[in-house]
Write a structure and sequence with these properties.
Elements (H helix, E strand, L loop, with lengths): L7 H17 L5 H13 L15 E3 L7 E6 L1 H5 L9 E7 L7 E9 L10 E6 L5 E5 L2 H7 L13
Antiparallel strand pairs: 1-2, 2-3, 3-4, 4-5, 5-6
Length: about 160
């Protein structure tokens, strides 16, 4: 083999990695991306928002959210935690450890009337700690998991 040739297996592995990586990042439509930018602004100060009853502070978690999470909800969601109204926002800050400096991402759900009636009208987003949008819109990975929540609201913490 010529020393500048890429072995077939390496090329196949690289291609497979790129396919899987692109499947993990889902930015949705341009409108979904605009909504994600607006939602980041709406989340400003979310660290001081309320929590679901019984889920205050840092809690153990699991993939894809990280080893620990802090979940907060806006005033609309806090007003009726059992029946989240349109405009409800749920923010889950994802941590690698119990150390508050280990924030890896923030995953967010916002209930938008008419957005996705088949899936509770939830808009889904994921941000890096610096606010870079990595997932937005009708994120199948999120929907597929939350479909298993009790009830019909795709929320686990109010079941």
């Amino acid at each position: 083999m010529h020393r500048f040739q890429i072995p077939h297996k390496s090329l196949l592995g690289t291609s497979l990695f790129l396919i899987l990586f692109s499947a993990c990042a889902s930015l949705g439509t341009p409108e979904d991306q605009d909504q994600g930018a607006a939602l980041w602004g709406e989340m400003n100060g979310h660290e001081a928002w309320a929590s679901f009853a019984g889920h205050e502070g840092m809690q153990p978690s699991r993939a894809p959210h990280g080893k620990f999470v802090i979940t907060t909800i806006n005033d609309v969601a806090a007003a009726d935690q059992a029946n989240l109204a349109p405009g409800s926002i749920v923010v889950k800050d994802n941590y690698a450890s119990e150390d508050p400096s280990s924030l890896k991402a923030s995953t967010v759900m916002k209930k938008i009337p008419g957005y996705d009636p088949e899936n509770g009208d939830w808009y889904w987003a994921r941000y890096t700690p610096k606010g870079e949008l990595t997932h937005a819109g009708k994120v199948s990975m999120c929907i597929d998991c939350h479909f298993d929540a009790d009830g019909e609201d795709l929320i686990f913490l109010n079941d």
